[in-house]
Design brief:
Helix 8 packs across helix 11 (266-288) and helix 11 (266-288) crosses helix 12 (303-312). It is globular and about 60 Å long. The strands form two sheets. Strands 1, 2, 3, 4, 5, 6 and 12 form a seven-stranded mixed β-sheet that branches. It has 368 residues and is α/β, with parallel strands linked by helices. The chain has 14 helices and twelve strands. Strand 8 and strand 9 form a beta hairpin. It binds adenosine-5'-triphosphate (ATP) and ligand AH0. Adenosine-5'-triphosphate (ATP) binds at residues 11-13, 15, 165, 167-169, 187-188, 192, 203-207, 297-299, 301-302, 332. ATP binds at residues 11-18.
Length: 368
């Protein structure tokens, strides 16, 4: 029997809302429709302010409602554009927008905004949301969750497979009997910040600016000393660590000129940031022993990044997930359609081997 789910993801890159409409049968999963809806500048700045600056509870509460309304309106637009029969949809799997992820504190939490009550009230469709906090309540990291979906999709492939999502952050899945997965560190987030600061562009299209520079080996070695990269798993990260302050600190350490002037060309910083993401991903893939790396997330569109990943992983087949029949752009939104399906069917999601939770559990809350 077929069921139909919508998956909605807006991730740490803050590039916008990805939506996937999926058909799930007992032994198959198919992406029927998908689309991406960029954030407008104002809402992106409001989210960034909420992440980076002190904000009143009133403003956070209003942002939660605003994001709920924005998700609802975008979902309605998607349903109408794709001529989807709303009555067919079992549920919407909503990730929401991560404002803060704090899995290691004395009082661990992970906060995603986008009020699901608003979405179900406006669309009339059930919503599954709040996926991460149960795992954290069981002592887990609450992320990454995509490895369970990667295992579901690719375990049929015979090779020793790793999957890396290169979004704002990068997260690795090592498939097989003992499924493992963790955030390797920064993906595109620092490159996005640096090109936005210096050239006013949202991202380094095709990695062209990085390609025009030369990475600085000393700066790279310095950045690789970041303790997160050598931290034991389970581990997860986000903008709490990899952010503008982190980069500014690293650059000041590297080039402590009183004048504040950089002793390195800006395009060489961009090239070094690309190399940082490539090396931290490649180091973990090598440790995994995988002979095939499937790549998804927006980083797939950065051909220079993909080229450098291939250079660093000689002997490993590096392919976009699109070549395995799965959209690299909508992998995460599909994952939340699948997670909503698992929740509706009250199935435990096998994530404890990834997050360190005391047990696998039923994830998410249903709003209807
Ligand atoms: N044409 C392109 N060239 C280079 N980079 C690109 C291109 N298109 C997208 N990107 C990169 O992909 C990023 C968006 O990727 P994606 O949507 O997977 O991130 P996300 O889901 O928000 O992040 P996360 O997975 O960490 O939550 C952009 O911020 C940009 O850095
Ligand atoms: C708290 C949070 O939103 N984490 C994100 C982030 O973006 C990529 C990486 O860090 C991953 O751990 C996670 O999202 C994906 C969808 C995941 O849970 O697999």
């Amino acid at each position: 029997m077929s069921e139909y789910y919508i998956g909605v993801m807006s991730g740490t890159s803050l590039d916008g809302i990805d939506i996937a409409y999926c058909q799930i049968k007992e032994h198959s999963f198919e992406l029927l429709h998908s689309d991406a809806y960029p954030f407008d500048k104002e809402i992106k700045e409001e989210i960034l302010k909420a992440i980076n600056t002190p904000m009143t509870l009133k403003r956070i509460g209003e942002l939660d409602t605003r994001l709920g309304e924005m998700y609802a309106n975008t979902i309605e637009r998607f349903i109408s554009q794709k001529r989807i029969d709303k009555k067919q949809i079992t549920a919407i799997g909503l990730h929401g927008q991560t404002l803060w992820h704090e899995p290691n504190s004395a009082n661990p939490f992970s906060m995603q905004l986008g009020n699901p009550n608003v979405i179900t009230a406006l669309t009339g469709v059930s919503v599954v949301s709040d996926f991460r906090r149960k795992d954290i309540a069981l002592g887990g990291q609450g992320a990454p969750f995509a490895p369970a979906f990667h295992q579901y999709l690719f375990s049929r492939l015979k090779a020793k497979i790793a999957v890396v999502n290169i979004g704002g952050m990068a997260n690795l899945s090592i498939l097989g009997e003992r499924l493992r997965g963790y955030d390797t560190g920064c993906g595109n987030v620092l490159m996005d910040y640096w090109i936005s600061l210096n050239r006013g562009e949202t991202y380094d299209k095709d990695g062209e600016w990085a390609r025009s520079g030369t990475f600085d080996r000393d700066l790279l070695e310095q950045m690789l000393k970041e303790p997160y990269f050598s931290k034991a798993i389970p581990k997860s990260t986000g903008r709490e660590l990899f952010n503008a302050d982190w980069l500014e600190r690293e650059l000041r350490k590297f080039s402590p000129k009183k004048s504040g002037a950089l002793s390195i060309k800006k395009e060489d910083v961009q090239a070094t940031l690309l190399e940082l993401s490539v090396v931290t991903i490649a180091n973990e893939v090598k440790k995994s022993g995988a002979d095939m790396l499937i790549v998804c997330g927006g980083g797939v569109k950065n051909s220079y990044l993909m080229q450098r990943l291939g250079d660093k992983l000689k002997g490993t087949e590096v392919v976009p997930s699109d070549e395995c029949g799965v959209s690299s752009e909508f992998m995460e939104s599909m994952a939340f359609a699948w997670l909503a399906h698992e929740r509706v069917h009250r199935k435990c999601v096998k994530l404890s081997s990834i997050t360190g939770a005391s047990k696998d559990s039923i994830l998410g809350a249903i709003y209807e």
